[in-house]
Amino acid sequence: MRKIYFMILLTGILIVLTDPIISQVQLEINVNSQPAWGPVGYDAVEYYFIPEIETYYSVSQQKFIFYEKGNWVTSSYLPYRFKDYNLYKAYKVVINKDKPYRYNKEHRVKYGSLKNRHDQIVIRDSRDSKYYANKNHPQHNNWMKKQNSGNNNGNNHENKESKSRKK
Length: 167
What we know:
Layout: H1 2-26, E1 47-50, E2 55-58, E3 63-68, E4 71-75, E5 93-95, H2 104-111, H3 140-166
Antiparallel strand pairs: 1-2, 1-5, 2-3, 3-4
């Protein structure tokens, strides 16, 4: 009976201790899936908050979340009232918390001073090569060619060697 209690206690301790580790591992690097208008400097982003229009953007879902007619709405596009809004110039706050719109009142107060601030460098304009993997970066195609030529050169070399050995 003591062994059973000990095993249950040990299992509980292991679960408590490994849960933060599992949570950290699940927060993957998602530079490739961030939009080109996203700010540089973040390897992993769950949401952006755009204080100027009080809108959230889910990177994993690639959808905007905004308040409309008393409800939070999810859409692939900004609402019509923001149809001319320039996301490349907007200041974005990275929020890595689930369902951040639940804390919208706090975010409005905390980040309200960032409205009309337009000095954030976005992924599209970055010269850091880690962002070239993002398919929307202007250097993506050149980066892909270099990646492929590096792989092909290695493969061609191997193929020539293996053919010459077979002769």
